[in-house]
Hints:
Chain A has about 475 residues and is of the alpha+beta class. Chain A has 18 helices and 15 strands. Mean pLDDT of chain A is about 80; it is low at about 1-15, about 20-60 and about 415-425. Chain B is globular, with a radius of gyration of 15 Å. The model of chain B is unreliable at about 1-10 (pLDDT under 50).
Amino acid sequence: MAHSRALAAAFSDTLGRSSSASSSPAEDARRSPHARSMPHGSGTAATTTATGVRGGAKRGSRMAACLWLPTFELRLELVRFPDLDSTSVALLSPGESARRTLWQVSERAWDAGVRPGQLISQAVSLCPSLTLLDPDPAHYDAAVEAILEALSARTPIVEPGVERGKVFLGMDGLGRLYGSPKNQLRAMLRTLFDVLPRPLVASYRVGYAPGTFGAWTAAARATPGGPVIVEDDASLARFLSRCPVQALPVEDEMVTRLERLSIRTLGDLVRLPEPALVAQFGQDGRDALAWATARRIDPVRPWHRPRPIRASLEFADATGQLEVWHAALDRLVERALARDARRGRSIHEMRIIGHLEGGGSWSVDAILREPTAEKGRITYLLRSRMELDPPPRALTGLVLEFTDFGAPAAQSELFEANAEQGRTLADGKVPPSLKEAVRELRLRLGDSPLYRVVELDPWSRIPERRHALLRFEV
Amino acid sequence: MALRKATGSATRRLRRLDAPRDIRVKTDDAGRPIRVARARRVLAVDRIVESWRIDDEWWRSPISRRYFVTVLEDGAHLTLYRDLVTGAWYVHA
Lengths: 474, 93
């Protein structure tokens, strides 16, 4: 990652180091599990295809603040287990594989030569006293939710980064409430005291600038307790010119090539003609120039996330049997689908969280290509995900969350077998009530406007070829 | 299987489902939709849930589309695609 290098250069006093390090706002957008789109309303002229749409106010907040806590997950663990604070600690990478690697390491472990991305055996040989911790994603996600919730009370626009420890805040209009940018940032940090321990809040790095890229870059240059504030576009361009090219949210390869060409700062980059950059790097080159010159300002966008529907189940004894997990999943899906909050909505994204025996948690996300409320399809997907990425240990409990929803469930459910006597059409029998309705419509309108859906080529990649409407005749 | 144009009485009973319709779309620099004109309103694309490309039937009348499953600011889900042959945008109703 380009940013891992940026971080290494920018933060010498970071508590710990992370193998995934950090990501920029634009990278956040690309890597989001929810596949977020790029922020809208960029400063550069947007191209219009087909027939352009004019007008439309920019959404989001132009002035942005970025609150960033490096190695967020490791710090949370150290808060949970304070005894480990004075030891060498490393957090293992999420997921289960024969060759597990380190994800985040403490400063003490770093000093012993332990690095994120190393194999466990390598790390232990370098630092025999190293304490290895399994990640607990459910705990980290709960902390992030609490942070977002708390910050939402201060500003209406809160956008989480992909990295758990990073959050963007819309700052437009907050001057009237909190005063100067410095006071605004103070107010935001004060809010965090409600949900995080004081030392953790004190470790936050805070940046304030136009656009998310500017705010993130400012946060990356900030120190704990020493926010970096860039108040306008002209100052932003000057500020960015001093930043290393690693700050750009582009591929590593592009950064490496720039460095080989002795282009080390964004100031060096902006001296290059745009056609030359585009010729060398394509769209990435154009984007990089737009960011480096502060022509592109990505506003902070409001974060919409429906309230998830949760169903949970505790096992009497910890179990590691796949069959038991599957049976539990079936029950959880049934329960979650039966919730009132689910009615009229289909399911698009889901998450299974397992509580591991001996502490820690495990989770997997699943996205349905076509939202559905069919139990069979949902359980099939969840079971497959669980088999592909099984929990590393026995589970003491399972939680199912429906995290995103689609349009109302398909109308085929209207014709569910036994839903209502005489409504089943699967066997070709047309209920007398429907026959009568068709006859009446024909008498009134001259023709029946009723159709039924028939399959033509249900597996076609071209959607309009999959199904057709066939006039319903009796 | 392609639907042929309705001619006889039997085919008159058959109507396309999910037929694509023209739609006006504004895109960002990367060609992703950021606003769409729908029902006389211009709505911002809140997020792109998924995107994929289809290339098919190159041997007769090539089909080349870039699909975007989007969520609009009003919460509606919309499946859009750009016809990469003509450059026009369509929506699946």
